[in-house]
Amino acid sequence: MSNVPYHSSIVKNYKTYENSFLPKIVHIPIAQECDYEYKIVVKKGDVVEEGDVIASYVDSEGNCVNIHSSIPGTVLDFVPTICPNGKFEYSIKIQLQGSFKYLGKKKSENNVDAIFPKLF
After folding, report:
1. For the segment 5-41, what is each residue's pLDDT rounded down to a tens digit?
2. Which of 65, 69, 92, 119 has the smallest CB count inside 10 Å?
3. Short-list 99, 94, 100, 78, CA closest to 25
4. How far apart are CA 112 and CA 14, in angstroms?
5. Which has the minimum average pLDDT: 44-53, 65-74, 81-90?
6. How far apart are CA 114 and CA 48, in angstroms?
């Protein structure tokens, strides 16, 4: 379980963290597009950060298509995974470790009135 900050300068007497659940191990499928042969650019034991390129494909026109890691962690293995189209393709198994660099959109002041009902 991880903590996610709750951002508000109005609420001062409450805990400023909420619990959230993140998977400890993630499988990122390599075959993201039909009929493309992606080349895995990481190996077992590599430490990756979120956003690092883990596989790539270069088409006949020289266009490069990359698959990025969605979490920071260690590459554990390459395992066959069933895809939505019914085919078995390989996926990269990554164990979550470290911390996230990108926290998404900028924090903004939360409207506390929308979260807590007015009692009076």
Report:
1. 444 455 555 444 445 667 889 999 887 666 677 889 9
2. 119
3. 94
4. 12
5. 81-90
6. 39
- Considering the entire predicted model, what is its pTM? 0.65
3-state secondary structure the chain: CEEEECCCCCCCCCCCEEEECCCCEEEEECCCCCCCCCEECCCCCCEECCCCEEEEEECCCCCEEEEECCCCEEEEEEEEEECCCCCEEEEEEEEECCCCCCCCCCCCCCCHHHHCCCCC
Q: What is the pLDDT of residue 75?
A: 96
Flag the least confident range among 35-39, 64-68, 109-113: 109-113
Taking a C-beta distance cutoff of 8 angstroms, is the pair 71, 42 a contact? no
Lookup result for tokens 């080349």: 39
Token pair of 22 as six digits: 């993140």
Alpha carbons within 13 angstroms on the beta-carbon side of residue 41 total 14
